[in-house]
Amino acid sequence: MTILDKLFFDRPTLTVARDLLGKKLLRREGPTVLSGVIVETEAYCGRQDTACHAHRGMTRRNAVMFGPPGHAYVYFTYGMHYMLNIVTEAEGRPCAVLIRAIRPLEGIAEMLARRAGRGKNLTDGPAKLCQALGIDKSLNGWNLAAGEKLWVEKYRDIPARDVCRTPRIGIGYADKKDREALWRFYVKGSDGRGKTKGIPV
What we know:
Elements: H1 6-9, H2 13-19, E1 24-29, E2 32-45, E3 72-77, E4 81-88, E5 95-106, H3 108-114, H4 126-133, E6 150-153, E7 163-166, H5 176-180, E8 184-187, E9 199-200
Antiparallel strand pairs: 1-2, 1-6, 2-5, 2-8, 3-4, 4-5, 7-8, 7-9
């Protein structure tokens, strides 16, 4: 078990977003451990990125993004969903990677129970994986390097031939350059939504 530390996340956000593919995301609640391999991410690159929550500056909601790398930024959206992001780059540079999808590994029965038996689409979206893993605002600001409640480990290396990039999803409010930036990364064969067609890295 090799837990990813602060140094892994203290790098350019696009690099971290790509390198998180194939890593294992783990969630512990008491004796229960749930995990999955990360297969889809999106990069959000600070104040110059109009799709980023920090584009207009610091607020109570996004303050974690301005802190040290390797911490969880968990926010609530649409009045019903939680989203997990991991802060990247140096403190004061509000960047993060959204974890969009995982492939379940451990604790699948528990995930199914939390997702009301939706096995086919168990963790193929950012809100779905948070529900399956029990990730909520109580983990906002959590240091993933602690290796306790929520952390990321080395698992598999995904070769470039198996990685695709596309524009990010659901950011119609952003400037054209940011809507078109190829800042979504996914492992070939893991993207079943058919919304976008990726190009090889």
